[in-house]
Design a protein that fits this description.
Layout lengths: L3 E5 L4 H13 L4 E4 L5 H9 L8 E4 L2 E4 L1 H9 L3 H6 L2
Parallel strand pairs: 1-2
Antiparallel strand pairs: 1-3, 3-4
Helix pairs in contact: 1-3
């Protein structure tokens, strides 16, 4: 299984949707609470190449983007292969 990390912020509807999709897929992932002004949010921004929004999702260390990107991968059939890699 790949190592999946998702930076989120409490109450963020996009974060909730992304987490729900990963849970539906039944894959283990690490959710990292990253509200504004925290070291975790700074880490998320640095890892994502400057993206300031959450969620930011990483699969095996590679940034795949946010919620819309995750759902785009799902619609195109490209998410499942990523979740099975590793």
């Amino acid at each position: 299984m790949p190592n999946i990390e998702i930076y989120t912020q409490r109450g963020c509807p996009f974060c909730i949707r992304a987490v729900a999709l990963l849970e539906k897929k039944g894959v283990p992932f690490r959710e990292i609470n990253a509200p504004h002004g925290t070291a975790e949010r700074t880490e998320s921004r640095e890892r994502s190449g400057g993206k300031t929004t959450v969620p930011q999702i990483f699969i095996d260390g590679k940034g795949i983007g946010g919620c819309d990107d995750l759902f785009s991968l799902e619609r195109s059939g490209k998410l499942d292969p990523l979740l099975k890699a590793g």
